[in-house]
Amino acid sequence: MNTTSYGQPLFPEMRYCARCCMPESNEGMQFDEMGICQACQSSEQKIRIDWVEREKELAKLLDYYKSLNNEYDCIIPISGGKDSTFQLHVLTKVYGMRALAVTFSHTWFSETGKYNLQNCLEQFDVDHIMFSPSRSLVNRLARQSLFKIGDACWHCHSGVGAFPMQIAVKYKIPLMIWGESIAETSGRATHRNPVRKFDRDYFTKVSAKRYPEEMVCDSISLREMAAFRLPSVEEIEAVGVVGIHLGDFIFWDDERQMEFVRDVYGWREDKVEGTYKHYKSVECKMAGVHDYAKFLKRGFGRGTDHASVDVRAGLLTREEAFELAKQSDTERPPALDWYLEITGFSNEEFDAVMAQHRRDLGIATLTDEKFSAAIESYRSSQVKS
Hints:
This protein is mainly alpha-helical. It is 50% helix and 6% strand. It has helices at residues 38-48, 51-67, 82-94, 111-124, 135-149, 154-170, 202-208, 212-215, 233-239, 254-265, 287-298, 302-312, 318-329, 335-343, 347-361, 368-384, and strands spanning 74-77, 99-104, 127-131, 175-178, 242-245. A three-stranded parallel beta sheet has the order 1-2-3. Strands 4-5 form a two-stranded parallel sheet. It is globular and about 65 Å long.
């Protein structure tokens, strides 16, 4: 072990949260006067929120939508992941909602993910609609996605927002219920300052970044983008579509919730590339590519996200968290070989595209030279140890 760098961040010149491991390169990152990030601020605010009163607000809201006597009380977008499984438990078992489950398939389901999705449908006995885009379209979008947003997953980011909204309009179901609040761990908002409320363009603003029309190119036609198109403002207003996040009404603890659905409903964990935890995005074979791309662009990946959560929870010291983060973030995921195969990129082309996205951020501590030197130094220290 290199004791001189133990417990230090991978890029020591970059500014990090004074409490956790989140760097200045995180999207929308803001620090307070004490150098503490918004995610840490939000975790402190959670302790002081009156969750009993929040839950009463939720119950009142759900009672209203049940009183409409529609065919379905709400739509629950699900992937079969831990969050959507927990959402189904809360809404069907606790509040007695008649829910329509809606899945936009990324088409990259792991075997564990396939099991978890089918298992939750059987456990909660809900009606279900799933849309799966063609394999060739997903492959082409996965390539275009890297150029457009520096991420392999535009089709998923866009589809999970657009397709459930299409169903809400088609079946006239006004209430859509999501899980984790943006104030939870992203660092882009707090519970006191939510920044973004759910609206027609929510998922485009938060994750997809580009509208379907912007993804059209020589290999992708506008006609193929039907599943990714948002309903018009007029269509949404006619139905009265609104969206809420359960994490704004109940105390959200995704690891405890995962343990609950695992122990009570048989939800399964598995190895997930890019992190030391075995539950986040376990349903997707490409999760490691998503997180490795974020590391190449911003200098941190899901290892940093999870380590920072554990620091806030008091499970790790900041030094221990930096060590876990470095180990997870810098590891090249085996799934990258599959991504390169289906998109036609070479490894060198992939790295070049991501390097350009990194340069576009304009962060002085993430220049090509400093980024390469930091990676080489860390990997060399691991070989020696």
